[in-house]
Amino acid sequence: MKAVSVPVLIGSLSMLISCVEREQPELGRAPSTAGTLLEAGLAEDTVLIAFSSERGGNSEIYLMGVDGSSPVRLTDNPAYDAWPSWSPDGSQIAFTSSRNGNPDIYVMDADGGNVRQVTRHSARDIWPEWSPDGRRIAFASRRDGNFEIYVVDVDGTNLQRLTNTAAHEDFPAWSPDGSQIVFSRVEGDDGTYIMNADGGGPYKLLDFEGFEFAWSPDGERIAFGSDHEGFRGIYTVNIDGSDLRRLSSTTAGENCPDWSPSGTRIVFASWRDGDGEIYVMDADGTNLRKLTDNEFEEEFPAWRPVATSTEITP
Ligand SMILES: [Ca+2]
Ligand SMILES: [Ca+2]
Ligand SMILES: [Ca+2]
Ligand SMILES: [Ca+2]
């Protein structure tokens, strides 16, 4: 998403609609492989960040080291591919792609292979979030007329709708124990809500809508983007709504936060340099470091949730 002060739901849609499908030029990069990167993933500092980039001509999903090193492209399709979400064991990645005509949820192995389509509906199915037990994927879909939160088994079966309102619900993110889901609601009792994982017991966490939530690994705080101060910034808040803190030190636009596995750092996208780049900061907003540096849009970073990769073979 560009750093624009409109609800990100609308931004997401216009981005998808405006996505121009083009031929994929060669990257001209060294032939490092996802398998090589995954083999190296033995410590938090050397594991991986998945992210979206337009550096190859259209949005694709890439991996890179947490220091920004050795980017490799996982998807290679002229359609829009974005919004990676790791499986809890770090072996697979869920994402959104328009490769079959409209946005649907897909999963692939973490080396980019074995792509499977999870949703098959003409409506927009976006923003996948893999459940902590590894069995399900939460996502937002407009298949019932406006955006609602759904969960589906990773194999595409057992679809359940968790919300049912005239408003738009989006950006589901699971609590680490899988018992709750945080989400946003706009165009009707706007705000940030937490519900039980079966859709029950929703309560309003914040009076304004957040975007692109990420629950901290210890379960105590939620990171998100918000426009409530007039620009897109990154915030964290306790799950009872207390201790709201803005981490962004710029009004240029920042969003898409995700926690490191230890919860000590946050990766995010920033437009402080004019186009989207991936940055990392400590969880208190200090110690900012830039991981990408080019003229193309980079966004939607997702930190690999485990620091070892014994399940992965190149
Ligand atoms: Ca693509
Ligand atoms: Ca669809
Ligand atoms: Ca709704
Ligand atoms: Ca860039």
Q: Could you tell me which ligands this complex binds, including any ions or cofactors?
A: calcium ion
**What share of the residues lie within helices?**
under 10%
Could you give the order of strands across the largest sheet?
A: 3-2-1-24
| Known CATH architecture | 6 Propeller
3D structure, described in words:
By secondary structure, this protein is mainly beta. It has one domain: TolB, C-terminal domain (Neuraminidase), CATH 2.120.10. Helix content is 5%, strand content 39%. It contains 2 helices and 24 strands. A hairpin with a 6-residue loop joins strand 9 and strand 10. The longest helix has 11 residues, at 8-18. It is globular and about 40 Å long. The model is unreliable at 1-32, 40-45 and 308-314 (pLDDT under 50). The chain binds calcium ion (4 copies). The site of one calcium ion has 8 residues, from strand 12.
In short:
The protein is built from two helices and 24 strands.
Layout of secondary structure:
Layout: H1 8-18, H2 34-39, E1 48-53, E2 60-65, E3 72-73, E4 81-86, E5 92-97, E6 104-109, E7 116-117, E8 125-130, E9 136-141, E10 148-153, E11 160-161, E12 168-174, E13 180-186, E14 191-196, E15 203-206, E16 211-215, E17 221-226, E18 233-238, E19 245-246, E20 254-259, E21 265-270, E22 277-282, E23 289-290, E24 298-303
Antiparallel strand pairs: 1-2, 1-24, 2-3, 4-5, 5-6, 6-7, 8-9, 9-10, 10-11, 12-13, 13-14, 14-15, 16-17, 17-18, 18-19, 20-21, 21-22, 22-23
Bound molecules: calcium ion (4 copies).
One calcium ion binds at residues 58-60, 75, 77, 79-81.
Give the tags.
disordered N terminus; 314 residues; four-stranded antiparallel sheet; globular; disordered C terminus; 39% strand; mainly beta; binds calcium ion
